[in-house]
Amino acid sequence: MSPQSRPGGRPGPASAAAGGAHLAAQWGLPLGVLLGALAAARLPGAGGALAAGAAALLAAFTVHRLRLRIRAASQERGSLSEQLVQSQKLAVLGELSSGIAHEINTPLAVIGQEAELLRADLETLEHGPAREALGRRLDSIEAQVRRCGDITHGMLQLVRKAAPVLQPVVLAQLCEDMALLAEREARRREVRIVRRYAPGLPETLTDPPQLKQVVLNLLVNAVQAVRPGGRVELAVGPGAPGWSEIQVRDDGPGIPEENLSRIFNPFFTTKPPGQGTGLGLSVCLGIVDRLGGTLGAANAPGGGAVFTVRLPEGANPPEPGPALAR
Amino acid sequence: MDPIKVLVVDDEPDFVQLFVKRFAKRNLDVVSAPGGREALELLRATPVDVVVLDVRMPGMDGLEVLREIKRRHPLIEVIMLTGHGSAESGLRGMSLGAYDYVMKPFHIDDLLERIRKAWDHARRRRADGEAPA
Fold it and tell me: Quick one: pLDDT band at residue A1, thresholds 50, 70, 90?
């Protein structure tokens, strides 16, 4: 996972070059000013001009670096607070929707049971067009009851109270399990799932079944987003110190800019009605949140969508990403 | 340490017999049921740590059984076995609280490891005291 490929949200670790620039930015400005002042004060002639020039260049460079870093940091803060707002919104909506789901589930169960009883009654009728027509209507009722059931199930998931149970996990293996599950559907759509697992990652302390749900969800979304012959990339790599990252990238049409901020909203969906409840991503966000991580969506520079899950490796993660003032 | 108590649910008697035999040899305490209803009946009286459950069974469908098990016995971990690896079934299963999805045919040591992890997950959950009584 290259640092350039990181979408919004918390930035990954500084590469060696970035680390050097970081140092230069931290010390360059005072050094440059010091050298410049010394040169102006002490050194006469060409040597002085040269030193002053070099000092000015160094100062200009560091100011430029600093400005870039400040901008990056404020963007990072922006997306962090966005995520916070998103999580709080999700908590409120989740509370509300679980109340609704509970209320709806009871009448829904009654409808389902009545349909079952009707089905039994139907069996006692004589065969004929009337019985078949009634049968089809019943099919439709049962299908719609199932659909409602999927929706209420999803709504309840938003506030699933199950606290995460942390276990050491090899992320690449967990992702591979889910890739194998998604593979059949991918092959049917002639989509290739390309794996990029960074070797030698430490184990991550997280809740395996809940994380699997997230990874599978992202994979299925990606597979459905690309055209036949397309590819989905599943990558696992190191993040900021103490963090790991899972990235699912597709080469589909990407996410329209105006949808980027709504994509995690419950019931937001671009799929045709009846296909998908629009709850998958908000459920994922809720899970990753409870796991102490972040989930970000972005468009890749080369096209397609990228979803990035960032997870702390342990229960008490260090601050993610380099902070501005350090 | 007490052996891990496992219930395997599958409608193929040959598979179940072989499963019980092989895992008993590996020091698991294995019981079996030929279908979902029988499994739920058995769970009323028999304490079990991990259920290994076939997704596709005649009668009560595997996902339906999973839902009932998690409703009645939230502390039991369930590993789903699937012959065909469907993403949709996987999504449903994971969202219903399955611990893992394993594709048939599986390697016995791999499944054993997953059963151990599922058991460890249940044990940690009890230790966390998060589970409803």
Answer: very low
CB A310 within 8 A of CB A242: no
* Domain residue limits, chain A: 1-160, 167-312
Q: Which residues of B touch chain A, with CB atoms under 8 Å apart?
A: 84-88, 90-91, 94-95, 97-101, 103, 117, 120-121, 124-125, 128, 130
How far is it, in rounded angstroms, from Cα A179 to Cα B89?
Answer: 14
The pLDDT tens digits of the residues spanning A117-136 come to: 999 999 898 889 989 999 99
What does the angle CA A216 – CA A307 – CA A267 come to, to the nearest 5 degrees?
75
Output the six-digit token pair for B35: 């279908």
Q: Is the bond leading into B105 cis (omega within 30 degrees of zero)?
A: yes
Q: State ipTM.
A: 0.91
- B101-133 pLDDT per residue, tens: 998 888 999 999 999 999 999 999 888 764 444
- The architecture that CATH gives domain A167-312 is 2-Layer Sandwich (3.30)
| Among B60, B98, B76, B81, CA closest to B15 | B81
Alpha-carbon torsion (A275, B90, A248, A292), positive or negative: positive
Q: Are strands A305-312 and A204-206 parallel, antiparallel or unpaired?
A: unpaired
- A213 touches B: beta carbon within 8 Å: yes
How many Å separate Cα A218 from the centre of its chain? 8
DSSP A45-74: HHHHHHHHHHHHHHHHHHHHHHHHHHHHHH
How far is C-alpha B105 from the geometric centre of its chain's CA atoms?
16
